[in-house]
Amino acid sequence: MINYFLKDDTMKQILLPMFVMALLGCVGCTTPLAETPMNEVDAYVAFCRDLALDGERTPDALRSPIHAHEYKTDCSIVYADADYLSYRVEAFEYTGGAHGMTTVTVGTLDRKTGRKLTVAELLSRTNLSAHQDAIKASIIQRLGGAENLLAPLTLTDNCYLAEDGLHFVYNPLEIACYAAGLIEVTIPYKK
Question: 127 is in which domain, residue-wise?
Answer without folding.
Answer: 2-187
